[in-house]
Each structure stands twice: as structure tokens, then as C-alpha cells.
Amino acid sequence: MGSSHITEEDIQNYLDHNPLSNETSFHFHLKRCEHCQNSMMEYRLLYGDLKREPDVRLSEHFAATVASQIHSHVKTRSRPYISEQLLGISGFVAALIATLFFLDWKSVLGFLTRITLPKIHFNLNFFESVKVIIIGLNGHLYLLFFAVLTLCIVEVLDRFILRTREYKIWNE
Amino acid sequence: MEENRHTYVYQLIDEIRSGNQRAFQDFVEIYQRLVGHIVFRMIPNTSDREDLCQDVFLRVYKNLDTFRFQCKMSTWIAKIAYNTCLNYLQKKRPVLYKDLAHGTMSLEDIDGNGHSPDMAAVEEDTSLRIHAELERLPVHYRTLLTLYHLDEMSYYEIGRIMDLPEGTVKNYLFRARKKLKELLVSKYKVDELWEAAT
After folding, report:
1. What are phi and psi of A96, to 5 degrees?
2. What is the C-alpha to C-alpha distance for residues B60 and B64, in angstroms, rounded to an integer?
3. What is the 3-state secondary structure (H, E, C) of B122-177?
4. Which of A24, A68, A76, A15 is nearest to B57 (CA)?
5. Quick check: B197 and A45 CB within 8 A?
6. What is the 3-state secondary structure (H, E, C) of B68-132?
7. Within a 10 A sphere around the Cβ of B67, how many other Cβ atoms?
8. Chain A residue closest to B27 (CA)?
9. Please, are residues B57 and B28 in contact by the beta-carbon 8 Å criterion?
10. Strand, helix or coil at B52?
């Protein structure tokens, strides 16, 4: 920084508590340079002024007036809730049907019977557990595939149907 | 403290969603300062300001179901207020809106003249001095300065509200303050400013 003055950007960064490129030379220069001290004082005054509340004059009963205007909306508010709940229930039922349809109950029950045996359970480490689960599926890996697919469908429904309304407000 | 306030706001939201009108009134009381800051700084037409504030809260109410707590409630409301004001400026004040295009806004575009005699009288009042000079900045700069200094929002939050990258927010803030300081110093002596501040 030496003989050249502190930049206005550095002064603002300092007042904003942002990191400075060279803090030591910044303070060293500021102590000795009247020009930069004046500049710093001008910015300090500006920052103080910017904190002053503007003259926001809303009517005394503003909140009550706004609240009274929403009364008509209150009666019709149940509709979006019902549609969302119906969509949620439909998604759950679809996922359940898909799971039941593709599930090989014999292999699953066989698998469950095996893993509840205490002897096997206590001897298993993590990798062996995974191996047992895969063998327990009796080669029916498509079950996993459809479970993942169902979750993806539910996520897509949520993102593009339900949350779209939220994104709308951000881009209106 | 902040956490208590969030919990209280979330409780209010639940009550509003179940149709409690009184809860919405409390909710409005909490956020009317924030909305007032944005609307009063962005909109030059004093007669429309309160209507716009009402409009903002009605839009908040209508869209409350879509709020998923992905950001702060204040950021969400400020975004709605900002967009409502932009829509208003686009419809009512096409000339003013010219300032708003991000890429074309420059400090040279700022009008340095055109103070009415009424405005000059207002500026005598030191508490209004800064606000009078702020009026001469482009609407984007005014909003940035308001959100940063009055509402104490971060670069990230302001960026989300105004659809600007954080770096641009910081850069615009720097330019806005520099221009504002120049306007103030050119008009008032530093000693005068210092006396007013103390």
C-alpha cells in the first residue's frame, strides 16, 4: 500500500467486516494518511446515515386491515390441502401396489426367516449381510430396481407438481 | 432469541394455514417493517405505497401453502415484495424501469440534476438528507442498500431476492455507496455531515 492511498473498495470492505488483502499495511497507512482518514470518516458517516429508518408511514391499523381482507380466502382454503392429500395418498397406494405386484413373497419370507435366526444374525458382518440379502432375493434384483423407480416417481411428482407452485412465486 | 422468533413464526404459519385471521394479523405486524422498507424505497409514488404493501401481504397469504422452509421467511417475503414492486414499476412507470436492466445500468446514467424546490426544503432536515439523496439513485441500488443496511441481510440473501450473484451484489453495493457518498459530499461539507451525525 505504501505511498498510494487506500482504495475506497478496501475502506468499504473494512467497514463491512470483509477480509482485506493486506490488513497490516491498511492500518499502517490509515494511521499516517490524513486523506485516507477523511475518506474513512466520510464512509463511516454514510454507513451511519444508511442505518437511519426511512419514513415508512403505514396506517395505524394496517395489519388489521390486511387481515380483514383475507377473510374471503379463508373459506376456500381447504381445496389445495385436499388435492395435495389426495395426491399423496394416490402416490402411496401406487407405490404399495407396485411393490406387492413385483414382490416374490416366497424368497422374501425365506430371507426373513433366515435373518431372524440368532445364530446367523450374530455371525454376520456388514458385507456378509449384503450378500445374504442379495441371495435372499433369489436373483430378483428387479425388486430393488422397482423400489428405486417408485421413489424416483414420487420425487418427480413432488418436484414438478407440488413444488412448482413454490418456484412460481420466486419467478413471478 | 432468533430461534425463538423462528419458532413463533412457524407456529403462526400453522395457525394461519388453519384459518386463524388473528394469527395473520400478528404475522403482518412482524413483517410490515421489512415490506415497508422495500416498497417505500422502490416506489416513488406515495399514494400507491400502502396499497402495494397490502398487495404484498395478500400474495404472501395466497402462497403461504407453497412455502417449504427452504429459506428464511423474511427472504421469501422480501422476494415477493421486490417482485410486486418490479411489476408495479413495469406497468406504471416504464421510464423508471429502464434503469433496471442489469447489464445496462451504469453510474453515468444517474440523473445528477432535477431537484424540485419542495425537495430542497425537505433536505434541510438532516434526518431526511440521506433519504432525499437515495431517491436519486437507480431503484436497484436503493433496494440493495436498504436490504443490506436496514434489514441486515447477507449478500446471499439479497442475491436470492434480486436474482443476482453474490459477487454482483457486493459490486453493486460498493458502487451505490460510492455514488451516494459523492452526492452527499458534493452537496454538504463534511463538517456539516459530521455535526448532523453527532
Report:
1. -65, -45
2. 6
3. HHCCHHHHHHHHHCCCCHHHHHHHHHHHHCCCCHHHHHHHHCCCHHHHHHHHHHHH
4. A68
5. yes
6. CCCCCHHHHHHHHHHHHHHHHHHHHCHHHHHHHCHHHCCHHHCCCCCCCHHHHHHHCCHHHHHHH
7. 16
8. A63
9. yes
10. helix
Cell of A100: 406387492
B79 to chain A: which residues are within 8 Å by CB?
A: 169-170
- pTM as predicted: 0.62
Chosen from B69, B177, B194 to mutate, greatest number of chain A CBs within 10 A: B177
What is the residue whose three cell numbers read 427452504? B70
What phi, psi does A32 have (nearest 5°)? -105, -10
Nearest to A162 by CA among B193, B70, B25, B74: B70
Q: Per residue in B123-164, pLDDT tens?
A: 445 556 777 888 889 999 999 999 999 999 999 999 999 999
Q: Among A55, A58, A161, pick the best mutation site for testing chain B contact (most B Cβ within 10 A).
A: A58
Residue A162 has what DSSP assignment? Answer: I
Q: Express each pLDDT in B21-46 by its tens digit.
A: 888 999 999 999 999 999 998 987 77
